[in-house]
Amino acid sequence: MCSTVKNIVKTKHLAVLLLDATSPSHKSYAASRKKVKVYDLRPHNIARLRFAINQSDWATVLSCTCSNDVSFVYNQFLNNIKMLIESFRPTKTVKIGPRDPSYLSPAIKVLLAKRNKLRRKGCKVEADIIAVKINGMISKNREFCLSEMSESSTK
After folding, report:
1. What does the pLDDT look like over 81-136, one tens digit per residue?
2. Would you call 54 helix, strand, or coil by DSSP?
3. Which of 58, 78, 110, 149 has the most CB atoms around it within 10 Å of its CB?
4. What is the number of alpha carbons within 13 Å of residue 142 lying toward its C-beta?
5. DSSP category for residue 91
């Protein structure tokens, strides 16, 4: 693969990049992005999950034939809880890339997508409310990152 880019040195010449596309060391930007699930933590979703846990049949876990093996019973309990969480809590999937700033959490990316969608629809008031919330979350994340800097050494 061959491409030309503007040279770092201030000249009228372009730099030529030659990349071997067949080599395994060549990584694309899309391949290095991670998908992260973000759970919706609004109170009505938590209440729905609590109700589902309450209504779930736990007799299968408690009356296990191998009740002397606590780790097996515990794993069954965890599997049931994970299944309930997956089925009763809405999720959104966001992609986190290596170029994303450290203060940009997956929850902020979900809100950014929601804000952009509202702005495209023309709902400026709702989008501005979400923008204020995003700014507050970003400032908290930056404040937390900078608070650790005061305790660090000069090294």
Report:
1. 999 998 888 888 899 888 888 888 899 999 999 999 999 999 999 999 999 999 99
2. helix
3. 110
4. 7
5. E
